[in-house]
Structure formats: structure tokens, C-alpha cells
Amino acid sequence: MHEKSNARMVDFSGWYMPVQYTTVIEEHLHTRSKAGLFDISHMGEIEIRGAQAQQFLQALLTVDLGSLSPDRCMYALICLHDGGTVDDSFVYCFSSTKYWLVVNAANTEKDIAWLREHASHFNVSIRDISDETAKLDLQGPLSENVLASLSAFPMMMLERFDIVNIRIANIPVMISRTGYTGEDGFEIYFSANQAESLWTALIEKKDAVKAIGLGARDTLRIEACYSLYGHELSEEISPIEAGLGWAVHDKQEDYPGKDMLLTQKKKGTARKLVYFIMDEKAVPRAGYEIYFKDACIGHVTSGTYAPTLEKMIGMGLVSTPVPAAGEALTVKIRDKLYGAKIVKRPFYSYKGGTD
């Protein structure tokens, strides 16, 4: 279906993925103004079932599942004992005995191995359902109207982080009001053998919906200051360093990395994520060095041209104490230093206030 839409296909962590259909800028702006359709079927889905499913995940995730009611989902981190990040994920609660973890595609096998390593003392089963589960994301201000036209369910009743089992275009789906673009939107999970049918039903809404590739997915998430594993998070970068302390709880139960993460939360870290806008038309790419007052203080983790802002923007991991908002930095790009200014996050936020 992507090839029929003239997508430019690339290798992405071993997956054959569409990077763009027209141009990244056009697809980005369409998602901000109408509705963008993303094929995210490469993501990993892991089902955790059993009498102790909640206790098991409570002992592994940084969030407090006691606050997560059935038919809701939340962002969650899986950490190493030293506070490094195994992966970031979304945890979906169907009941106290059934959960899903939605994880990064490249980390799925590693995540399952980590879960199973810690499951021996719990009455749970862990199943990789990634191959049988397709995932399409519809993001943007018109996404609710598009889905409402294809379903009898009153989409306006679904609040941010709610999940529900319904039919869209007469196809059974599980849908959540979530996304990775900074816009209002929905993530749709369903049987892989229905992927072509649902893709076709959505893409036929031509006035509102366009297919969006990985290129615009990246520029959209950078504008919203969302972390990407391997850039803002890794086994060497803790959630606290990445500015995700709000997803690290001091719940009663222990979980891997808890002591280190709470210490970092209380006493601070040697590195911290910062956000900056370039003064000049130069793109800050991941790995480029960041300087403050002639000293190298860190590196760019993600950078891009931001179509919504019409500026070059970036995120970077730098040593503390970090420069304050408004202070000047320089970024070394091809042996030349280019000026930038520290800003507060996010670069862009959805005006509807659901994020």
C-alpha cells in the first residue's frame, strides 16, 4: 500500500518503512492542520496476563499503576538497576489481570527478555503479540471527525489516555486517544490481517487525511519535545537526565533503578536535557557538539528544521548547571560554530490543551 502511494521506502531498524510520500514539510504541516495517517505497525506489543499482572508491572515500571484504572493508559519507563533506561513505553490497562506494554520496535526482544528475567516470582504470562497486531495512528485536529464518520461510537466522549474497543469501518479495533505528534489524535490497534482494509478506509477520506512518513513523524515529535529512544533516552541516559522525572514515582514498591532515580530526582544529575533554537539556518544533527562560553558542555540528541516554527531547533544533553532560558549557546556543525538560544520546552504545543 505504501509503494502504491509512491512512498520513498527505507530500512528502519530492520523494517521496510515509508520515510515520506510527498515532502516532509508538506506532511508535517498537513498533520498540524488536518489529519495525518501513520503506519506504526512495527512497534512492539507485549501482553501481560495473570492473577499478579498488576503486582508484576508495579515491580518493574517507574509509574504507579495504582492510579491507572481499567480502560486507561499511561506513559511508563522500564529502567536498569543503575537508573539507565531499558525502554520507554505505554502501558494499557484492561483489568488488574490484563495489560499491554507498547514498546519501541528495535527494543521488543530486549524488553521481553527483561520482563521474563523478572517474572519468575509472579503468577503471570508474557506474550509477544507484535506480529499479529497492526497499528495505525491518526493525528491532527480533524482526526476525531474522520473517525466519527467511520464509527458509531461517539468519539468526542473519549478523553486523553482513554482506551475503548469499537469498530471503525466495521473492523474491530482497540483505540486510545494518544499520540506522538503534539496534536490531538488516536492510536488504533487491530488484527494484522485487516491492515490493508483499515488503511484504505482511512486514506479514502482524501479531504482530511494524508499518509505521513517517518520523516515528518520525527519533526513533529521534536517540535513537541518528545523523547526518542536512542537519542534522548538510552541505557546510558536516565529518565531524570531526560527531563522525565514526572514519570518516576516514589511508590512503596521497589522497581529496578528506584533508589538511583529518586536520588537523582532529589540531588540533581551531572547532565540534563536542554532545548534550543538556532540563530542561523543550520540544522543541528544528533551527535554535534554544544558549546557554552567556549567550553564543550555536551551534544545534540535530536535536531531538525521545524516547519511549524520555520526555524532550526534542537535538543541536547549537556553538563550541569545548564544555561538558563534565553542564554546563548553555539553548536559545532562541520567545524564551524553556529549561534543558538536556550528556550523552555515545548517548541510547539497543541492549542486544544489535551497534551
Structure description:
- It is a single chain.
- The longest helix is centred in the first third of the chain and has 10 residues, at 24-33.
- The mean pLDDT is 97.
- A six-stranded mixed sheet has the order 10-11-12-9-3-13. Strands 14-17-16-15-18-19 form a six-stranded antiparallel barrel.
- The relative contact order is 0.15.
- The protein folds into three domains: 8-43 and 131-223, Probable tRNA modification gtpase trme, domain 1 (Gyrase A, domain 2, 2-Layer Sandwich); 44-128, Alpha-Beta Plaits, CATH 3.30.70.1400; 270-355, Aminomethyltransferase beta-barrel domains (Elongation Factor Tu (Ef-tu), domain 3).
- It is 17% helix and 36% strand.
- It has helices at 24-33, 53-58, 108-117, 143-148, 195-203, 214-223, 258-267, and strands at 8-12, 15-20, 35-39, 44-49, 72-79, 85-95, 98-103, 125-128, 133-139, 163-168, 171-176, 185-191, 209-211, 271-278, 289-292, 295-306, 311-319, 328-333, 336-343.
What spatial order of strands do you see in the largest sheet?
A: 10-11-12-9-3-13
Largest sheet features? 6 strands, mixed
**What number is the mean pLDDT?**
97
CATH topology group of the largest domain:
Gyrase A, domain 2
Number of domains: 3
Cα(first) to Cα(last) distance is: 31 Å
Radius of gyration, taken over Cα atoms and rounded to an integer in Å: 20 Å
Shape label: globular
Q: For the record, what CATH class of the largest domain applies?
A: Alpha Beta
Q: How helix-rich are the residues, as a percent range?
A: 10-25%
What is the tally of helical segments? 7
**What is the correct CATH architecture of the largest domain?**
2-Layer Sandwich
Q: What is the H/E order?
A: EEHEEHEEEHEEHEEEHEHHEEEEEE
**What structural class results from the helix and strand content?**
alpha+beta
Low-confidence stretches: none
Percent strand equals: 35-45%
**CATH homologous superfamily of the largest domain, by name?**
Probable tRNA modification gtpase trme, domain 1
Let me know the number of strands.
Answer: 19
